[in-house]
Amino acid sequence: PNRIPHVMESESKHTNALIYIITQNYFHEAERSVAAARQFLPDCDYILFSPEDYDGKKFDKVIKLSPQTSKYWYLNEVRYFNEGLEKLTEYDKVCFLDSDMLMIGDCSDIWRGLEHFDLMLAHAPTRQTAPPREVVPSTFTEFCTGIVAFRNNLAVKLFFQEWLKQYETDP
């Protein structure tokens, strides 16, 4: 298949992965985040996905993504979720973190939660950030896409593919 070569790859000792999908503007921020996360989640691989080259040493793996194709960050991010899942075949459980997330305590319950659920999201810290396209009651809060934990299975892959399809149809 058409695969973009890995910039750096090491033998994986884990079945869990904490991933970051970022551009170079956020490399320093992601390095801070991964340093904090390693204190509380030692039993996983830390993987950086980026369309830009990264030459640091803070991540266990660095995987180069294809260039951005949309002017909408959220469309690129969901496309990168799909692209990344194709490259994470050795991992059973994956947690995506935004580069501005800092762990300040034990978060290993993320992996235990994924024993029962395919996808876990937190509520957003605020209400809607943009007007909804359809009438949505205020009792339905938005999700925080800064932390997304999921099992690496067919159901989740199909979900991310549908999410991308919806965004591409109506960005």
Q: How would you portray this structure in words?
A:
With 171 residues, the protein is α/β, with parallel strands linked by helices. The chain has four helices and seven strands, in the order E-E-H-E-E-H-E-H-E-E-H. It has a seven-stranded mixed β-sheet with strand order 1-4-3-2-5-7-6, with helices on both faces. Helix 2 runs antiparallel to helix 4. The radius of gyration is 16 Å and the shape is globular. The protein starts with 5 loop residues before the first strand and ends with a helix.
Outline the secondary-structure elements.
Elements lengths: L5 E3 L7 E6 L5 H14 L4 E6 L10 E4 L8 H13 L7 E5 L11 H5 L5 E5 L19 E9 L2 H16 L2
Characteristics of this structure?
disordered N terminus; alpha/beta; about 170 residues; seven-stranded mixed β-sheet
What is this entry, summarized?
With 171 residues, the chain is α/β, with parallel strands linked by helices. It is 28% helix and 22% strand. The chain has helices at residues 27-40, 73-85, 109-113, 154-169, and strands at 6-8, 16-21, 45-50, 61-64, 93-97, 119-123, 143-151.
Q: Into which percentage range does the β-strand content fall? A: 15-25%
User: How does the major sheet shape up?
Assistant: 7 strands, mixed
- Specify Rg, calculated over alpha carbons: 16 Å
Span between N and C termini?
28 Å
Q: Can you count the beta strands?
A: 7
- As an assembly, this protein is single chain
Question: What sort of overall outline do the alpha carbons produce when their principal axes are compared?
Answer: globular
